[in-house]
Design brief:
The complex is a heterodimer of chains A (104) and B (410). Chain A is mainly alpha-helical and 104 residues long. Helices cover 48% and strands 10% of the residues of chain A. Chain A has a single domain, classed as Arc Repressor Mutant, subunit A, CATH 1.10.10.370. The relative contact order of chain B is 0.14. The chains are: A mainly alpha (104), B alpha/beta (410). The complex binds flavin-adenine dinucleotide.
Chain lengths: 104, 410
């Protein structure tokens, strides 16, 4: 774990660059994280990011790809276009929530 | 007379029916359970059927016989719940049931229809599941004929019930082919959307190398989009392909269609539930137990058991007009069968990640493989007995047995 300045804000991140505390998240952080991943955020990206943040708030865990696709109403193929190579984990990182994981 | 209706008479529904029948005076309270399936399955036993350790007979019982006499059992498909009218519509008779309190325990179910190419001519011929009795039985016959080639196990996506069952399947497959003396002719591959077999730090630390040791190859971060049964390949959303000779799929799971028809579920038909009190978030007289909830707890029988343990005393408070206590902590424990007569036990809850420990299964270590498998076999038989006679009946496990037995079942 380390502290890092992202979008002029000092936040804690884990080894893989995910925010440790989802409450630290700001829209500017999302933009900066996306940039690091080579993604330029469009309205469609934001729809997905907002869904993921709300889901985390309600459920206390990050949604899987199927949950994002069904819940945000974005076809999976499109999710892969928006967030190439592993949409669930990329969007989690940009949305400031933990990486989706299994039980062990 | 007050009426509690329990939807679903599986692991959670049967346990809670027993506990409530015991706790509520029958002059004042009527209890009804609805389930569509005349058979109760011991689902953890499905894992052992492909390898011939169990036969189908070992894992089924007539459902009706498992309820206490005070409980009315209705065998019918549930059409939908109408929460604002406090009633449930059934497809069978009676057409409607009114309730004062409703307990939803309709579980979660694998949905191979959600992945194109699974259900078709190849289903249960070269493509199998082991999460249903039919799938596990068909797979047993196929494994017996399997002499060489590539066995691929594919996890479509979380959530699934018993999240460690796919890993256990791999370990048992390794062991099974080993015992048959053909392990060198069989390639075992695990294809998963997760970043690895073990995603939590402590578990990866302890179990990290175990797939490699067993010569099981892993293809991580693979999201299957469709399966081509003719070419025998899995195809991902990014058009990568993984070939197979025999495919074992663990399909994505959904909550009951009745939840969807009622309009009270999330995108996968799980019911939004307070993760500490198990009350439906939107309704004050509906509770949700077992796999049907959207809580971050694992979907497992051990969790259903712990949920029932904390729910019943809380419910007794609630009907007296007291507040619900936030007592459920997401407790889960999980027995990981690792083949060759060995096992791990993990124990965790919402806050604490699994802290693994070697499970001191009697006889492991100094005994030879053959004896180990036999001891394990007896251990399983014992656990199955506990499921039918102790757990489902709502009896409390005696304390010393509790850790090891709950662990074994989990
Ligand atoms: C292969 C496998 C291995 C497993 N291994 C383990 C293990 O080792 N340890 C562990 O703890 N757990 C294990 N589990 C998980 C465990 O079996 C489940 O988590 C547990 O049974 C959940 O209980 P439940 O009451 O929520 O759901 P269930 O027991 O599945 O019951 C749900 C019931 O609802 C009924 N129902 C649903 N919809 C309707 C409808 N519309 N109308 C009428 N009836 C309906 C169904 O018929 C069913 O009887 C395993 C599961 C599988 C498949």
């Amino acid at each position: 774990m380390a502290t890092k300045v992202i979008a002029n804000k000092e936040v804690e991140v884990n080894d893989e660059g995910y925010l440790v505390n989802p409450d630290d998240w700001t829209e500017d952080i999302a933009r900066a994280m996306a940039e690091e991943l080579g993604i330029e955020l469009t309205d469609r990206h934001w729809e997905v990011i907002r869904f993921v943040r709300n889901y985390y708030k309600e459920h206390g865990k990050s949604p899987t790809m199927h949950q994002i696709s069904k819940g945000a109403g974005v076809p999976t193929k499109e999710l892969f276009k928006l967030f190439p190579k592993g949409p669930a984990k990329k969007v989690a990182r940009i949305a400031g929530v933990p990486k989706p994981e299994g039980c062990i | 007379m007050k009426h509690v209706v329990i939807l679903g008479g599986g692991t959670a529904g049967t346990m809670v029916a027993h506990r409530l029948a015991e706790a509520l005076p029958s002059r004042e309270w009527a209890l009804t359970v609805v389930d569509q399936d005349p058979v109760h399955y011991y689902q953890p036993g499905f894992l052992f059927i492909p390898f011939g350790i169990y036969t189908p007979r070992d894992v089924v019982k007539p459902r009706k016989a498992l309820f206490p006499p005070e409980v009315r059992y209705i065998q019918s498909e549930i059409e939908a719940i109408e929460p604002d009218k406090n009633r449930v519509h059934l497809r069978g008779e009676p057409r409607t049931l009114s309730y004062d309190f409703l307990i939803i325990a309709t579980g979660s179910h694998p949905r191979p229809d959600e992945t194109p190419g699974l259900l078709g001519d190849a289903w249960h011929k070269t493509i199998f599941d082991f999460y249903t009795l039919e799938g596990a039985t068909a797979l047993h016959r196929a494994l017996e004929r399997f002499e060489k080639g590539r066995l691929v196990l594919n996890l479509v996506d979380m959530p699934i019930k018993c999240p460690v069952a796919p890993l256990e399947f791999l370990f048992l497959a390794d062991w099974y082919f080993h015992e048959r003396g053909i392990r060198q002719n069989v390639e075992i591959v695990y294809v998963t959307p997760l970043p690895g077999a073990f995603t939590k730090p402590r578990a990866s630390q302890v179990l990290g190398g175990v797939l490699e040791e067993r010569n099981i190859r892993i293809v991580p971060e693979f999201y299957v989009e469709r399966v081509d049964p003719e070419k025998k390949v899995l195809i991902s959303y990014e058009e990568e392909e993984v070939p197979f000779d025999l495919l074992v799929t663990v399909p994505i799971h959904y909550g009951s269609e009745a939840i969807k028809r009622s309009g009270i579920g999330d995108e996968l038909n799980y019911v939004p539930t307070d993760k500490h009190t198990l009350k439906a978030r939107e309704f004050d007289n509906i509770f949700v137990l077992g796999d049907a909830t959207d809580t971050p707890a694992s979907k497992a029988g051990s969790v259903a058991h712990f949920m029932v343990d904390v729910f019943v005393p809380n419910f007794l408070r609630y009907i007296e007009g007291l507040d619900l206590l936030p007592t459920f902590d997401g407790h889960s424990n999980c027995y990981i069968e690792s083949g060759f007569g060995k096992a791990f036990l993990i124990d965790f809850n919402y806050e604490t990640e699994p802290l693994p420990g070697m499970y001191p299964l009697p006889g492991v270590g100094p005994f030879s493989l053959l004896q180990e498998s036999r001891i394990n076999h007896w251990g399983k038989l014992l656990f199955r007995w506990i499921y039918w006679h102790v757990l489902l009946k709502g009896k409390h496990l005696p304390v010393p047995a509790r850790m090891s037995m709950a662990g074994k079942w989990a």
